[in-house]
Design goal:
Number of strands: 10
Keywords: Signal
CATH architecture: Sandwich
Number of domains: 1
Distance between the termini: 62 Å
Strand order of the largest sheet: 1-10-5-8
Strand content: 35-45%
CATH topology: Jelly Rolls
Radius of gyration: 30 Å
Number of helices: 3
CATH class: Mainly Beta
Structural class: alpha+beta
Low-confidence stretches: none
Mean pLDDT: 87
Shape: elongated
Largest sheet: 4 strands, antiparallel
Length: 183
């Protein structure tokens, strides 16, 4: 019987201690001041074109065109919180011809809102990489947000004609880094 009484006493004492423990008032308004700045990195576009792919039915193609749809700015949550964008492009040419790559950022009416020109020198036996970073903030970012397509127009500079047996390739790697502010 004495064991029950001391167990009851100990239980009541522990209950009182936990009931009167230190606790500060919680400030639920802190959530109103919450701010995070995530950075998102994603692939934008890439290709690896062999020199022989510039030949169609035995004829060298001086211009290659593609215009993929970009859905990056369709999401309103993303679009409203976007504060800065960096577009990175890296081209490697191992073909003995120079090229120019023009990128037209098109709006919903297929009107250009931004143009990027890249000159790619011909291959001369050494590493031949061309890089470019475009940064969009403020007004430029507002224009970029209207982009629905990017038209890639590749033009071959004059030189020795390519054949179906020509060697080398032209490679593009690109990425987008998006800086967001979520409040």
């Amino acid at each position: 019987m004495k064991g029950c009484t001391s167990n009851q006493f100990l239980g009541i004492l522990l209950l009182l201690l936990f009931s009167n423990s230190c606790a500060s008032d919680l400030d639920f308004d802190q959530v109103n001041n919450f701010k995070t700045e995530p950075v998102v990195v994603a692939n934008l576009a890439s290709f690896d074109i062999q020199a022989s792919q510039f030949i169609v039915n035995g004829v060298e193609q001086n211009v290659i065109f593609d215009a993929p749809t970009i859905q990056l700015f369709n999401d309103s949550f993303f679009k409203r919180r976007l504060k800065k964008v960096e577009l990175f492009f890296e081209l490697e040419n191992t073909i003995n011809r120079a090229y120019s790559l023009n990128l037209f950022f098109l709006d919903i009416n297929n009107q250009p809102v931004h143009v990027l020109n890249l000159a790619i020198p011909s291959y001369s036996g050494a590493e031949n990489k061309t890089t470019k970073t475009d940064i969009f903030e403020n007004v430029q970012l507002d224009l970029l947000k209207r982009t629905t397509k990017i038209a890639f127009i590749m033009t071959i500079s004059p030189g020795k004609p390519l054949t179906k047996d020509s060697v080398g390739s032209l490679k593009l790697r690109s990425s987008v880094t998006a800086y967001l502010v979520v409040e």
